[in-house]
Fold this protein.
Amino acid sequence: MNVRRWLVAGLLFAVLWVFVRGAALTPRSLLTNFLVGTAVGLPIAYVFRRLYEEEIDLLGTISAIPYVVGYIVVFSKEVIVANLDVAYRVLRIEPQFEPQVILVPLRVQTAVGITTIANSITITPGTITLDHDPDENALYVHMIDGRDPEAVVDPIRTWEDYALEIFDEERSPEDPPPEIRVHPPDHPPEPKTVPERDAEHGPGGSVTEERPGEGSDR
């Protein structure tokens, strides 16, 4: 069943309004704040309706709610564990850090799916997303301890399993994840763009020699 997306956005704003206002857990208070949030949210959502798709699959969205809850649970657990791990490493007499960069190919393909995974990695202490390779649909991930890359990637694969269902991706959690690639710590991934100075200079940074007939006459 498809419905106007701005209607759903307005109702979600109303629900958010109830939480932000800290409504008392009584039917009257909840209903009053929800109606106020609806009165505020629907006009705003209607004004900005051109910023998103016209319709949304309501049944598909509702069916994704359990996966959203699951994602939040496993992600929150991993953030807590990672915080404790980083704190332990910092407070040790001899801090233990063996940084490493790995390339993590993804199964999610939509922009929102890739962004969700990339942001989750960055929010989790001890890891950060450096870049996204659109050709390979993979993320460059930096970690503070690269002795066991698979242990770091396992939670990412779990998040991706939920994201595949949440965003209705083409691939499914049953599809085997691609293998990761490890980069030596002293050889970070090459940048995707060429620095401006390299475009103006020849190989090795030297200024290219002006050929006869080029440039202004002297």
In short: Residues 101 and 142 are 4 Å apart (CA to CA).
